[in-house]
Amino acid sequence: MADSPDDYLMLEDIPTIGIMGFQKVPEAKQVKNRVHLDLDVLDIEEAVASSTRIGATRLGDVHEEPANFFQVMCDPEGNEFCFILLK
């Protein structure tokens, strides 16, 4: 269990998923990525701002592809994830 509210983030009301949570752990990671998440968002910059407040880092600029825009992010342990804005 987390020691304080700053040690975890709960995402709720995610269609088809339910509730997803993220929690800091004291152990160092043992592999490159434990999991890679692609998260659909309504506003990439808002998602970046929210995630950087809790320790994430933006990796490079927003990428533009024919079907979407995406921003690669990194959690405090170096696990990459992406915010996706569908066109």
Compact summary:
The protein is mostly beta strands and 87 residues long.
Shape: globular
Q: What is the highest CATH level, the class? A: Alpha Beta
CATH second-level architecture: Roll
- According to DSSP, the number of beta strands is 7
What fraction of residues sit in β-strands? 35-45%
Q: What percentage of residues falls in helices of 4 or more residues?
A: 10-25%
How would you portray this structure in words?
With 87 residues, the protein is mainly beta. It has a single domain (5-86), classed as Roll (2,3-Dihydroxybiphenyl 1,2-Dioxygenase, domain 1). It is 11% helix and 40% strand. The protein has 1 helix and 7 strands. The chain has one helix at residues 44-53; strands at residues 8-14, 18-23, 37-40, 57-58, 63-64, 68-74, 80-86. The strands form 2 sheets. Strands 3, 4, 5, 6 and 7 form a 5-stranded mixed β-sheet that branches. A two-stranded antiparallel sheet has the order 1-2. A hairpin with a 3-residue loop joins strand 1 and strand 2 (18-23). The protein is globular and about 40 Å long. The termini are far apart. The model has no long low-confidence stretch (mean pLDDT 78).
Observed structural traits:
87 residues; mainly beta; 7 strands; 1 helix; single chain; two-stranded antiparallel sheet; 2,3-Dihydroxybiphenyl 1,2-Dioxygenase, domain 1; five-stranded mixed sheet
